[in-house]
Each structure stands twice: as C-alpha cells, then as structure tokens.
Automatic annotation (TrEMBL):
This is Transcriptional regulator, LysR-family. Keywords: DNA-binding, Transcription, Transcription regulation. The keyword Nucleotide-binding does not apply. It comes from the Bacteria.
Length: 328
C-alpha cells in the first residue's frame, strides 16, 4: 500500500475505531458531527481498501468479524499513538494538567480514595478529578474512563496497572453486644449469633474462614442485611449483631474501642477482599496527569499504616469445635 493511500485511510481507521467503541453508526455520527450514512461509507471504504469485511451488521447491533478483530487492534494502536502525540506537549509543561476520570468501587472510593483528593488537587492545581463511584464493572474504553481501581488478585491481562493496597475484611461487634451474647470462640459459634451481612447474593450469608490449613464455612443469619459498608458499621454500632466490614471502614471505631474484632485468629474470606489495583490501558506515553494521580495515590496509601489490619492472634480461644473433622 502506497504512503499516500495509507495516509488517506487514516481518517477511516479512526472512524472505524469510534464505531467499534460506540457500537453504532448513528451514535458515532452524533459524536463526530457527521451523518450515519457518511460513517457507513467511511467504514465501507476501509473494508474495500483492505479487501475484507470488518463488521457484521444486524438489525440490532454491530459485531466485529474475525478479520475485524485484528484490524481493530491495529487501528486502536494508531489512535492511541495519535492521542499520545496530542498530549506530548503536556510532558514538557512544568506541571500536569487536564481532567482525570477515575472509576472506583463505592466503599473504596468513599473511605480510601476520596480522603486524599483535596491534597491531590492542592498539589496539582491544573488537574481536575472526576471520581465515579460505582460497583459495576467499568470498561475503560466504552465508559470513557482514564483509570479504574478494582479489587482483584488477578488484574486484567489487557491492562497495565499498579498495586495500591490490600483490602481486608473482618468481623466486628460492640463490647455491649458481646457482653450480652458472648464472644464466639470458633466460626461455628456464629450460628448462635445475630449477624449483619451484605445480602446482595445468596452466598453473602455463607461466611468463610481460613486458619493455616483449616477451612471453615458457616451459614449465618440475622434480621438485617445491607449492601453499604457505612450502614453495616452503623448497624454494628447500634448493637444489632456481628457485622462483616472492610478494615478501612471499621478501623476508626476499632481504634476508639467502640467495636472489637471477632475471631481475630481466623482470616475472614469474602469475594470483596483482595488487592486494590489502579488500572489503565497499555500506553508507552502515559499522560503526566495520569502518572501524577497514580504516583500520588500509591505514595499516600503505601505510607498509611492504618490501612493495614491488626495482626491476627496466633493463639485461638478455647473451643469445642477444634476437631479436624469439623474444621475442614
């Protein structure tokens, strides 16, 4: 392919990437200020030049063909490179600038990330932040997000990222509740207690524990389930039962003695614990505004000792459930 022809097709390639991103000719036309027919013709010209069909069109949606997947990956690289060129001037500015859009789970955003935003804005006066708090899976490209913070032990292989902090969960109750109902000595003792749990899925009332090579799973019950960590903490503080809480939510109440950790010698395992990673699309030329945000949060969270859960006791309390048959 001649250089002139390749240059002429670059615009069509960029349009093709946008069509895949939006999944619609009409939406692409709206965003680019063109007509749907013009967008369709642009993709058709690219298909003709490449000699392959890129999109499978149905009455309801567009799908990439087998060859379209490969072409889209290459075109996406081209668009990313073009964006890097446009942003390269910012690399020589004395300070980062522009908008940073960050998606983060609600509780982590509220209790872990948000408290550091004022200091970040003060340090980088030319950077604005849009913090999007939601618990749904966010696609960085489709949802037009620069960075996504996710709790995972296996970051998506198609993304780059940096580990920020461990997210640990634990069981807590007030001293008043425990004085009235007793302190559990083993996970199975929870069957005799009222528990406050997430309640979004049936498995949320099935609590799992780990200590050494012992694994225990217990079905708990209670009169109150709520899918907000702040609300669960408030319920625990009102003596409604033993609640499951991420440590970053419970830490201040623990430090003040308002609540105490239950079964501290056991590791409480949930689907919502793991490592918090800040992820972004692979890009050799990461804009300074994103580098600044990533480095700032990594520095702040790594230097905040109160995010580390208290060490578990090595000596468990006496319990009638210590037989290996029960503790598997």
């Amino acid at each position: 392919m001649s250089t002139n022809k390749m240059i002429a097709l670059m615009g069509e390639m960029a349009v093709f990437v946008k069509v895949v991103e939006t999944g619609s000719f009409s939406e692409t036309a709206r965003q680019l200020g063109a007509t749907p027919s013009a967008i369709s013709r642009s993709v058709a010209r690219l298909e003709k030049a490449l000699g392959t069909r890129l999109l499978q069109r149905t009455t309801r949606k567009l799908r990439l063909s087998e060859g379209g997947h490969e072409v889209h990956a290459r075109c996406l690289d081209m668009v990313s490179a073009a964006q890097a060129v446009l942003e390269v001037s910012g690399q020589f500015s004395p300070e980062p600038q522009g908008l940073v859009r960050v998606s983060v789970p609600k509780a982590v955003g509220r209790f872990v990330i948000h408290p550091h935003i004022p200091d970040f804005l003060a340090r980088y006066p030319k950077v604005d932040v849009q913090l999007q708090l939601n618990d749904r899976y966010v696609d960085l490209i489709d949802d037009e997000v620069d960075l996504a913070i996710r709790i995972t032990d296996r970051p998506s292989p198609g993304l780059m990222g940096r580990r920020l902090v461990d997210i640990d969960h634990m069981l807590c109750a007030t001293p008043e509740y425990l004085a009235n109902r007793g302190m559990p000595a083993h996970p199975h003792d929870l069957k005799a207690h009222t528990c406050v749990f997430l309640g979004e899925e049936p498995g949320d009332s099935r609590w799992k524990f780990l200590r050494g090579d012992k694994r225990v799973s217990v079905s708990v019950h209670g009169r109150y389930a709520v899918n907000h960590t702040g609300a669960r903490l408030d319920a625990v503080l009102h003596h409604l039962g033993i609640g499951s809480l991420p440590y970053f939510t419970a830490r201040h109440a623990l430090q003040q003695g308002q609540i105490v950790q239950v079964l501290p010698e056991w590791e409480f395992k949930t689907n919502y614990c793991g490592e918090a990673w800040i992820l972004y699309p692979p890009n050799r030329h990461l804009p300074p505004k994103l580098s600044a945000f990533i480095n700032f949060m990594a520095e702040r969270l790594s230097g905040e000792p109160t995010l580390s859960r208290p060490a578990r006791r090595t000596e468990p309390a006496a319990s009638p459930y210590e037989s290996p048959e029960v503790a598997k």
